[in-house]
Amino acid sequence: MNDQDIRTSEYDGDEIQDYSCNCGCSCERPKKFLKPNRTILKCGSPGGVSLPALTAAGSTFTLASVTVDTKYLKRPCIKFEFASNVITTAAVITLNFQLFKQCKNQITALPVGPIWTFSRAVAITDSNTFSFFVCDCDFCSDDCCTYSVVATVAGVASVGVTAINNATLAALIVDNECY
Length: 179
Hints:
Order of helices and strands: EEEEEEEEEE
Number of helices: 0
C-alpha cells in the first residue's frame, strides 16, 4: 500500500475510502484509509502580565496556554513554540519559564522539558524577545491536554517593573507513526 495507512477511526475528515473486513474476522467498526503524516497546527491566544516592583520570589504567572486533542493520531509528537517580549523598566529580575501539561484525568500539571531562564542583572530599561521550543512525544493513550507556559520569579524579589507582552504558545502536532 503506497503512502496509505489503514487504521480504525470514526473521524471522517481524512477519509479517502471505506475498507471492508473480508478476512473472516470480526471488526468493531469499518477500517478506513487515512492520510499518513497528518499535521495539525494549534495557536493559543496571546497573553501577558506586568510584574510590579518587589514581586516576591516564587511568584508564578501563567503566560499562554493551548489545548490539543490527539484522539485521532496514532503516535503523536508535538512541537511547542513559545515567544514573548520582556520589557524591563529599571528592573533587576530573574524569571524561569517552563511548559506544563495537564491531561484529562490529572490533578496537577506535569512539567515538559527543561526550565528556560531570562535574567536582567543590571537595573536598566530594555526590551528583549524571549522564546523557546520543546517537543512532547510522551502519550500513553488518546489524550486531550492543556499546555501552559508558566513564569516564576527566581532568586530574590524583583526590582523595578517588568512586563511580559505578546506571550504566545503554538503547537505543531504530527502523526509520528512509522510507515
